[in-house]
Amino acid sequence: MTPPGRIHIVGVGGPGTSAIAIILAEMGVVVSGSDVRESPVLERLRARGIPVNVPHDPASILGCDVVTHSAAVRSGNVELRAATDSNVPVWTRAMMLAWIVRQRPTIAVAGTHGKTTTTTLLTLALRRAGMDPGYLIGADVPQLDQSAHWGRDTFVVEADESDSSHLAIAPQAGILTNVDVDHLDEHGSFEGIMDSFDRYLGAIPGAKVVCGDDPHALRLARMHAARTYGVKAADGGALDVTATDLHFADGATTFVVHSPWGRANVSIPLRGVHNVRNCLAAITMAGEFGVVPEVAAAAFGDFAGVRRRFETRATHGGATFVDDYAHLPAEIAAVLAGVRADRSGWKRVVAVFQPNRFNRMAVMSDTYRDAFVDADVVFITDVYASGTERIDGVTGELVVDAVRAAHPTRRVEWCAQRADLVDFVAKEVRDGDLCISMGCGDIETFPDEVVARRRDLTRAN
Length: 461
Fold this sequence. Notes:
This protein is an alpha/beta fold. The chain contains 16 helices and 21 strands.
């Protein structure tokens, strides 16, 4: 992989590809992009001097040295076909990320859950210590001007297992947050996932930081002599960095961190034990780079969160509407457990879930059976494809059946059509409720749709 000249990015409006476009531009590479529809992301890229065409146009690859693309872009895309016909090298996103990482010492953040928040927290800790780290974060972060930055110091990057980016790059240091079942289309089985994270850790020459609360991650940590962190080790043994005195109240969490570099009181405006672990991961890796816990804790105190991670979108009629990216069983359970531990005065929790990817639901729908135990009412809608092909018999109703079979007294409503879902939830939610919609598809617009429908109902009455 030689250094590219002019690069064109197909599907540049995605969170991962737009971040790559920003980094390439800051590196001085000539970069352009395209997408199927206009969006605020494209306007921000254009404001930075990155030309973007809508829709896709085969002529846009003329004069390019390399074409890259998001995972959502199909191989039959007109620009990708034009690149192939013109003998222009086509790199996957993982290949492009690998080339970027080779240009600077890098810390990778891998794992099934928590990558985005952990990457953000680590970036904030390094910045608070006076560094100018580069970073690539797969979501918008209000505290940062943009989701990506080349910087002058160590580069911090999410290493995604969905396309084996965690194996394509060559970081000098790395975090493993946890190991769970997902992306079986990429890895074949849970054993394949474990093997990929085993190879990821094995290829890291420097600091390795792994969560000890997760039994699968801890097994890998012991194999690779990694630094461990957590609240309680899965095997009952000792951990290098731990948290005690956890307290959840008013949408915030406090705890005391104990580490080889000292102890510190930490206060974060986030809910849930899972976010304590995210903080510990960042504190541990920051410690490996000379940042003491007190400095990292100071960076977390005013953390504004990450977009689509328990993001309050609206209040209406005494109800609160929250949007969250959680889409895997463990993520949903962690978010709802965090709410249950700190109700903040809410009377009921109404959970709305949009399953994602037909191939995922075909093999994983039954694993959602216990994900909603901390919700009072559950609404489930149909599967959002995310570029996957429809599979006969695979619908969101498989998740409904799994939850009802495991919890027959739980109120679970099946709403296949979006319009019905919006109407039912708008009428169900009442004063004092928290309505939290979850998923990684177009469910992110759901709070706005429900509030608009509630206003229509109010006017009609």
